[in-house]
What we know:
alpha+beta
Amino acid sequence: MKKERTGWLIAAICLTVISALLWLAAGNFWSGLTSRMEEGILLCLPGEVPEEMLAYAEEGGWQTRILEEEEGNFQVLLDTKSTGKIRFRETEKVTLLAFGQELEGDCLNLSLHKYFLEEFSLLALALALLPVFCWILVEVWKLLCRIRLRPVRYLPESALAVFLFCTALVLVLGAIHIPREFLPMENVFDMDFYAGSVREFLGQAQSLGEVVPQYRELEHLYQTGLKLFGIFVAGVWGGTLWLAVKRKR
C-alpha cells in the first residue's frame, strides 16, 4: 500500500511539472504571436471620410492612418494612447467618438481583440485545472464529513484544506481579465450570446477577409490559440483522469 501511494505521488508530481513546463512554453510562444498584433480600431466604411472629419479626429488626440482607399472601400485605422480603454465595437459609437458624427460600416477593435487573446494562456490554465479543483473539492468535502467522527483530528486539516482551496481558486480566477464586451450583460453562461458573437465575427471574416487582411490574421490567431491550448487542456484532463483512476485502484 505504501509503495502504491508513493508511486501515485511521484506520478502526480511528474504530471504537474510536465504540465507547468508545457504551459510556460505555450505561453511564451503565444506571447510572441500576440505581441506582433496591430493595435487600434479599424473602420471599413462604404464611403470616403471627409478631410474635416479626419482633422476633427486628430484634434481630439486620434492618430488616423488610411490603409486603403478605393471606390466603395475606405479603410482607416484609428489609434490613440487610450485606445485600449475604448471598448466599443459598434461603428456608430466609434465614429461618433472620433469624428463627431455617426457613420455606417464595419468596425474591428484590434486592441480589444489583442487584450482578449493575451488572456488565452490564463483561460487555458483555468480550464485545465477545472477537474483538479473538482477533485480537491471532493477531498475537502470528505474531510469536512469526518469532523463529526473525530473533530479534534480533522478540524485543523479541514480548515487548512478549505483555506488553501479558496485561495488557489481566487488567485487563478482573479488573474483572468476578460473584456466585458465579450461577456453577456446578465448571464455569463448565456451560450446563445457566445454563439452569436462567434457567428458574427466569422461572417465578417468571410465577407471582408478578401479586402481586409486584419480579419484573416485575427481569425488565424484564434484558430491557432484554440488548437494550441486545446491540446494542453485535453492533455491535463487526461492525466488527471488517469491519476484519479490509478488512485482508486
